Amino acid sequence: xxxxxxxxxxxxxxxxxxxxxxxxxxxxxxxxxxxxxxxxxxxxxxxxxxxxxxxxxxxxxxxxxxxxxxxxxxxxxxxxxxxxxxxxxxxxxxxxxxxxxxxxxxxxxxxxxxxxxxxxxxxxxxxxxxxxxxxxxxxxxxxxxxxxxxxxxxxxxxxxxxxxxxxxxxxxxxxxxxxxxxxxxxxxxxxxxxxxxxxxxxxxxxxxxxxxxxxxxxxxxxxxxxxxxxxxxxxxxxxxxxxxxxxxxxxxxxx
Length: 255
Prior knowledge:
With 255 residues, the chain is α/β, with parallel strands linked by helices. The protein has two domains: 2-134, Response regulator (Rossmann fold, 3-Layer(aba) Sandwich); 147-254, CATH 2.40.50.1020. Helices cover 32% and strands 30% of the residues. Strands 2-1-3-6-7 form a five-stranded parallel β-sheet, sandwiched between helices. It has a five-stranded antiparallel β-sheet with strand order 12-11-10-14-13. It has a three-stranded antiparallel β-sheet with strand order 15-16-17. β8 and β9 form a beta hairpin. The radius of gyration is 20 Å and the shape is elongated. The termini are far apart.
């Protein structure tokens, strides 16, 4: 079994390679490849059994490489993005792992790969379906425009433009742009992330989903993290975006 790694962050690549070697000690591991062109050159002459691929590379996105090739290889995506299209693609039997990579999730993804081998699943068809979704060839998903929260003894509806952010504590709290804090009945931030328009909302941390109008700006941190400046300010917590999510956050904030 040959596994190709595609990852342009050296530290993450070393950690990923070590983890894959631990989980698949009999496998040959190629890579990591760090660029779209490097992926194209490799796959033109080699066919691995499995690809573990980052999405954002030094010279583009890995989709650019896969889209140019007649590829029928299962792919496990690793990404700092938590977007609807990626999750939808998971339903097509290609897994994705959100960085930082959870070893248990990678183990589960590799187990899926081994279970699929006798079925003859056409991964190329699945991948083309995903690319068509990303290229806008299927109807865009319907995102929620209003969210419910408890205010005193009432249930109120808050327009997405008036949502500053959602915070997960023991419950999921909705903070409004007017500074109100409302209790919600949503169970998880993953549930809300599925409902929210990704052009307006960003999963900044596992505990916070922030709306773009609530971001006054940000300060780069010497560790590579980003301190998000909220509007209105909130004295209850400091919002720090991880180094892995810093580039996706900047891309989202720039529009």
